[in-house]
Amino acid sequence: MISPPITEVYKLIANQDYDWLDLLASGNKAPDATGKYTSILIQNADETPDGIRNNRSTLIRFRIEIQIFFKKGFSQNIYEKRQVIEDLLQNDGWILSDERPPVPDPKTQQTFMTIYFIKNYAKSAYKKRTALKSTVR
């Protein structure tokens, strides 16, 4: 089962009209193993209880991982494309937690970047799939 935060981010990116993005996927399988397409893979990186009150957590901190795989011969600025995704998620209340430099994929030799975002959800709101305004300790 895909967690609601992954679904939320998937829909957020899917609703954009990026002419440079060919494929979008979520889960554990990369959308392209050939290196012919620019793709984004969204995965759940961590779920941590947070907002401890009276020995009970009131929040779940979700951390998602986004990998951007640039097709071989991609001629646009990859840092600008990463910034577009970062801005999109930050405008939706996600907090940038970490970003990794571009490296070549060992299988396809295409360049990819990894970025991580976090967002807190109230446990009761999580069941309703309604996000609480993101906060970080």
Sequence of secondary-structure elements: HEEEHEEH
Number of H- or I-type helical stretches: 3
Output the radius of gyration.
Answer: 16 Å
Number of strands: 5
Helix content: 10-25%
Terminus-to-terminus distance: 29 Å
From the spread of the alpha carbons, the general shape counts as elongated
Beta-strand portion reads 35-45%
Characterization of the model:
The structure is a single chain. With 137 residues, this protein is of the alpha+beta class. 23% of the residues lie in helices and 40% in strands. The protein is built from three helices and five strands, in the order αβββαββα. It has a five-stranded mixed β-sheet. A hairpin with a 6-residue loop joins strand 4 and strand 5 (111-122). It is elongated, with a radius of gyration of 16 Å. The relative contact order is 0.19. Residues 128-137 have low confidence and may be disordered.
